[in-house]
Write a structure and sequence with these properties.
The protein is α+β, with helices and mostly antiparallel strands and 147 residues long. It has a domain of 100 residues: Alpha-Beta Barrel (ADP-ribosylation fold), CATH 3.20.170. It has four helices and seven strands, in the order βαββαββααββ. The longest helix is centred in the middle third of the chain and has 11 residues. The radius of gyration is 15 Å and the shape is globular.
Amino acid sequence: MILYHFTRANLTDRILKQGLTPKADRHGMLGGAKSVWLTERRSLAIPLRETLTVMFRSGVYMRRWLFDGVGDGDVVRLSIRVPSDHPLFEYGPWVRKHRRTVMPDRDNLHYATSLCYGHWISFEKIPAAWILGFGRLRRRDLGEISQ
């Protein structure tokens, strides 16, 4: 399976040498669990339908599905080939099964939108050898221009 990981450009050299190590979740999306976040999405931009859904349900205008400020600077997208025997968990079903009070509510805007599908978590290291390549994102991939 080919998945993607978004990160700040200044971290690329280290990641290409050491791989991706599970990190603690700063936003409560995994209840503090250490993981590597992977996605099927090639862009950080949120499609117009999801943007409108978020605005309708929460009043918040979101251009990106990634909330940690990565989209505010120089961003790269790593392409990763994940072997079929590597344990991956689809985010939506995993979080519904393991939800704790520190994690988002099912009615939270995260569940109503993009974080429900196309995203995967790994609780194990992603070796550098699995990284196929990387590229800097264009403005439209950052969500700067409506889709």
